[in-house]
Design brief:
Layout: H1 8-14, H2 40-47, H3 62-75, E1 79-83, H4 86-95, E2 103-107, H5 112-121, E3 128-132, H6 137-143, E4 148-154, H7 166-175, E5 179-183, H8 188-191, E6 201-205, E7 219-223, H9 225-238, H10 244-255, H11 257-276, E8 281-285, H12 295-301, E9 308-313, H13 316-326, E10 331-332, E11 342-344, H14 356-361, E12 368-372, H15 378-392
Parallel strand pairs: 2-3, 2-4, 4-5, 5-6, 10-11
Antiparallel strand pairs: 1-7, 6-7, 8-9, 9-12, 11-12
The protein binds pyridoxal-5'-phosphate (PLP).
Pyridoxal-5'-phosphate (PLP) binds next to helix 4.
């Protein structure tokens, strides 16, 4: 092919490990714990890092290497590591680079377990943190301390769908010599590439839209060669590796990411627009709705608005719960990014341990419903929501 860079869909489909002597078309599953050495010299050179190659599947495996090679092309990063879960990715991407005395600034609205790492686990090792607001740039500048080593950001946030200007935070991080780590799970590499705006690390829960079919748990840390080298050392010796089976599933999942995200986003936008006209709904939030306070920013840094829509059911907690109990087609589950549409009520489930004031601070109003829009026909999704909204108000 010519010098022109291949496009996203082509990289997603055509990035494959080398074919074996069986000439298979689809990459096989390499269920092997270790690999044999040609001779003593090769074994020595592999262990000395003088040559690249597989030794043991805790370190690398052809399936996880294929997944990472593909994710690096899709995110525009130099290197990466596949992990057993999204949380393993979040944890090692921070733990590998921080030491006692360091400080982290994170966006206030982050995934619950990431919050637990910062607030409960890291303080045991004398690593402190502050929270800053996604939509208030000055709060980031104020939170920086002389020992601030890392920014951790989630955009769009879960479930409030607030954004941060990636170009702005990328420049702030560079100016202060701080590592910028972006959890890109909600957007996926198809919608947003934080590395293009200066992120040094891009972290993923592959469990969500990357798998997209609700089957496996997995994660990835992607980033610069220099930082991934340290993260790889940490991972190699602590062992949060992804299984070859999950890597095989996830690499195949990426082949369809673009077409799936196009449909998730089209149905999500149509459903958000439709919800805005419903009398039982107080407000709807979706990055590509003109009513979103950061709509222009969403258009600047995201290709499409994503697969998650949030809305507030009139009447608060009780009516929000009534809405969920009235759904017939949509699933009531804690996951997102599945082929099946899923509704959740954060105030009584995922965020029930926070006080009402804490929930308010991260944009979780009492009747808020998080809707992960699936790949069913949009009319059927809307019909089910309509009947549940009617029942929610009785
Ligand atoms: C689900 C999720 C995680 C955690 O990923 P797991 O694969 O469940 O470990 C981290 N960040 C975000 C934004 C998520 O949605």
């Amino acid at each position: 092919m010519s010098e022109k860079k291949r496009n996203f869909e082509t990289d997603a489909v055509r990035t494959q490990s080398n074919r074996t002597s069986f000439r298979e078309h689809s990459t096989p599953l390499y269920l092997t714990s270790s690999f044999v050495f040609d001779d003593a010299e090769q074994a020595r050179a592999l262990f000395a890092d003088e040559i690249q190659g597989n030794i043991y599947s805790r370190f690398s495996n052809p399936n996880s290497t294929e997944l990472i090679d593909k994710l690096c092309l899709l995110e525009g990063t130099e290197d990466g590591i596949a992990t057993a879960s999204g949380m393993a990715a979040m944890y090692i991407s921070m733990a590998a680079l921080l030491k006692a005395g360091d400080h982290v600034v994170a966006s206030r609205s982050i995934f619950g377990s990431t919050h637990q790492i910062l607030s409960t686990l890291f303080p045991r090792f004398n690593i402190s943190h502050s929270y800053a607001e996604l939509n208030d740039p000055s709060s980031w500048e104020k939170a920086i301390q002389p020992n601030t080593k890392l920014f951790f950001v989630e955009t769009p946030s879960n479930p409030a769908l607030d954004l941060i200007d990636l170009e702005w935070i990328g420049k702030l991080a560079a100016k202060h010599n701080i590592i910028l780590n972006v959890d890109n799970c909600f957007a996926t590499p198809y919608l947003q590439n934080p590395a293009a705006w200066g992120a040094h690390l891009v972290t993923h829960s592959a469990t969500k839209f990357i798998d997209g079919q609700g089957r496996v748990i997995g994660g990835a840390v992607l980033g610069t060669k220099k930082l991934i080298k340290e993260v790889r050392f940490f991972a190699r010796h602590t062992g949060p590796s992804m299984s070859p089976f999950n890597a095989w599933i996830l690499s195949k999942s990426l082949e369809t990411l673009a077409v799936r995200m196009e449909r998730h986003c089209a149905t999500a936008l149509a459903t958000a627009q439709w919800l805005e006209k419903r009398g039982e709904v107080v407000y709807v939030k979706y990055p590509f709705l003109p009513s979103h306070p950061q709509h222009a920013l969403a258009k600047k840094q995201m290709r499409l608005g994503g697969g998650v829509v949030t809305f507030e059911v009139k009447g608060g907690v009780d009516h929000g719960r009534k809405f969920l109990n009235s759904l017939k087609l949509l699933s009531h589950s804690a996951n997102l990014g599945d082929t099946r549409s899923i509704a959740t009520h954060p105030a009584s489930t995922t965020h029930s341990k926070l006080t009402e004031a804490e929930r308010e601070a991260v944009g979780i109003t009492p009747g808020l419903i998080r809707l992960s829009v699936g790949l069913e026909n949009p009319d059927d999704i809307q019909r089910d929501i309509a009947q549940a909204l009617e029942l929610s108000q009785r």
